[in-house]
Amino acid sequence: MPGVGLLFGPMLIGVYLNTILYGVLVVQTFIYYQTYKNDKPWIRYLILYLFILETLNTGFDIGMMYEPLIVRYATPRATIVAPIMLSADPIATVMISTPVQLFIAWRINIITKSKLTAGIVSFFSICAFIGGIATTISVTLIPEYARLHEFDGAVITWLASSAAADIVITSSLVISLYRRKSGVRATDDVINRIIRLSVQTGMITAISAAADVIIFLVVPNTTLYANVVFYQTTRD
Length: 236
What we know:
- It comes from Pleurotus ostreatus.
- This is DUF6534 domain-containing protein.
- Residues 162-229 form the DUF6534 domain.
- Keywords: Membrane, Transmembrane, Transmembrane helix.
- Helices cover 82% and strands 0% of the residues.
- The protein is mainly alpha-helical and 236 residues long.
- It has one domain (4-235).
- The two termini are 32 Å apart.
């Protein structure tokens, strides 16, 4: 097993980043409800659902660090058995990311009139959801750090599918927006800003998911991937 630094250090830093971004999320949620009061009720409920899930996920992450560093402090079990809350992370992540990706798939269908693209995004999103559930079940049944790579397939399905969905989302939005350029400078400037925003949000999330699965496979028996997955959850 790796030292305590490589085992808990990345997880702790990941939780710090997640908590900081959660503060940003609180402000964004407040601004949304103050600004977009005329949105459809189901959209406002979706935002509330995501806020509640992200709040719970942040609590799970804090509990995940409290257990080994406080409750199990200086005991062999702390470095052998994963904390109980670690199993909650995959399912919490996909319960946040999947509705978001399906919502964007619906928007893509409206904007681009492409049912194929929306269907591809939905397919990868559902695959990621299944992979996340499978990962949670696997971690629950096999909580030892040394055996986490026994269910690489579930983790790869979860993260690779999520990355694929984000890549398709970003690519389709960028292509659709680019085609809408009219040659009018004022209009094109607005479209360019939207394109940059789409790349900054969607592609960062996709890169995070891809980096997560690569680190998980290349650097075994550590939690270096935790920095990426916690960041990815809040970005979603």
